[in-house]
Amino acid sequence: MSVKRVMVGAAVLMVFAASAAQAQTPAQLYATNCLMCHGATGTPAAGMVRSMGAMPDFATVVAPADSVWVRAITAGKGKMPAMGGRLQPAQVRALVAYLHTLKK
């Protein structure tokens, strides 16, 4: 699958998910906004890493300060799109808290 198709698919998914994101649990927010690229357990698939570049493995990474993850989710990083226009600040903080639960 080409990177262009992945990016278009992700954009379409995020547009449809934006309205539903308000009432979602942190796990649902992750499933809706992050799972496709970062994997169900926080470990991205090798093919996704090859197409998108370096990605954190949330299950094993030494967690940076929460503010680093908040900034990455809100503003985007590398090929990851910015989610600040789609998620409320409280939802971003909920996602960051959820990332800590993926630690092995």
Give the name of the CATH superfamily.
Cytochrome c-like domain
Strand content: under 5%
| Shape assignment | globular
* Number of helical stretches of at least 4 residues: 6
The CATH architecture: Orthogonal Bundle
Tally of strands:
0
Instruction: Round the mean pLDDT to the nearest integer and report it.
Output: 85
Determine the structural class based on helices, strands and strand pairing.
Answer: mainly alpha
Structural description of this entry:
With 104 residues, the chain is mostly helical. The protein has a single domain, classed as Cytochrome c-like domain (Cytochrome Bc1 Complex, Chain D, domain 2). It contains six helices and no strands. It has helices at 3-20, 26-33, 35-38, 46-52, 66-75, 89-101. α2 crosses α6 (89-101) and α5 crosses α6. It is globular, with a radius of gyration of 13 Å. The N and C termini lie far apart (30 Å).
Q: Can you summarize this structure?
A:
It contains 6 helices and no strands. With 104 residues, the protein is mostly helical. The termini are far apart.
What labels describe this entry?
mainly alpha; Cytochrome Bc1 Complex, Chain D, domain 2; 6 helices; 104 residues; 0% strand; globular
How are the elements arranged and paired?
Blueprint: H1 3-20, H2 26-33, H3 35-38, H4 46-52, H5 66-75, H6 89-101
Helix pairs in contact: 2-6, 5-6
